[in-house]
Each structure stands twice: as structure tokens, then as C-alpha cells.
Amino acid sequence: MSDARPAAVRERRLDYVEFASRDPAASRRFFEQVFGWSFVDYGPDYTAFDDGRFQGGFFRAEPQTASAGGAPLLVIHADDLPPMLEAVLAQGGQVVKPVFAFPGGSRFQFLEPGGNELAVWSERDAA
User: Fold this and answer.
1) What strands, in cross-sheet order, belong to the sheet with 17-21?
2) What is the dihedral of CA 61, 42, 74, 16, to 10 degrees?
3) DSSP E strand boundaries for 26-116
4) Dist CA 114 CA 1 (whole Å)
5) Rounded to an integer, what distance in angstroms lies between the CA atom of residue 90 and that of residue 11?
6) Which helix (H) or strand (E) holds 119?
7) Predicted confidence (pLDDT) at residue 31 exceeds the cutoff of 90
8) In a 3-state reduction of DSSP, which class is residue 5?
9) CB neighbours of 62 closer than 8 A, spacing ≥ 6?
10) Which pTM does this prediction carry?
11) How far is residue 127's CA from residue 115's CA, in Å, rounded to a whole number?
């Protein structure tokens, strides 16, 4: 979790996120293939990621991440939703909330193979 950014840039900002995953290796493959994140494994039960701007990790445990039940929902930005939706499905993701419009853009929500619910949004109208 080392970071070369000055402490003032990191002060009072989200700095790292950890997700429970039924299968950290499957989560890793999914996010590498769909979003291009880089990873470092720390044994079979933990893998750390870097998306180029934010870092985090996946640890082996049962996720408790249903947004409908009040769990936090992390949202990933994409310039264009349709190719992201296709990639999510092609890599074993499951759409739990199809593309919908909201003031400012469109998004969809999905479960990744490790069991975490996330969303992808874009300023563009997905229609």
C-alpha cells in the first residue's frame, strides 16, 4: 500500500478499499480483463489492485455487498457504457440492475465473480 503522493494530497481522502471475495483469483481475473487493473498477489487469500488512480484489495471471505440492503456501492466511470456492459458479461459478471438514466448520465450495476456488487456510469446517454 505504498503511495508516492504527498501526504497533503492524501489527507482526508479515501485512500484504499478492501473487498471480501469468495474467490480472490476470480475477482482478479475479472477486473484485469474488464477494467485493465494491475494486481499483486499476497498468497492465495489476498490480492491487491491498482486502477491507476486508486488502490485496494480482495480478501477471501463471503461478501456482504447488496446495495439494496444498504451496503456501499462503488461506482466506476466509463466513457461509453455499452462496451463495458459487454465486457462485464463476457467475463462472467452478472447484471443486477440494467442500464438506467439518471440526471447526469446512465449506469448499470453488476456482480463480479467474487460476489461484489459494483456499478459503471457514464455521462453519455446509453440509448
Assistant:
1) 17-21, 55-60, 46-50, 38-41
2) 120
3) 38-41, 46-50, 55-60, 74-77, 94-102, 105-111
4) 22
5) 38
6) strand 117-122
7) yes
8) coil
9) 20, 22, 115
10) 0.87
11) 28
Burial call 74-92: b when 16+ CB within 10 Å, e when fewer:
eebebeebeebbebbeebe
Mean pLDDT (whole number) for 61-88: 91
Under the banding of pLDDT at 50, 70 and 90, the label for residue 13 is confident
Q: Which set of grid coordinates corresponds to residue 63?
A: 461478501
Residue keyed to cell 456499478: 119
Residue with cell 456482504: 64
The one-letter code for the residue type at 61 is A
User: Cα 115–119–120 angle (5° rounding)?
Assistant: 135
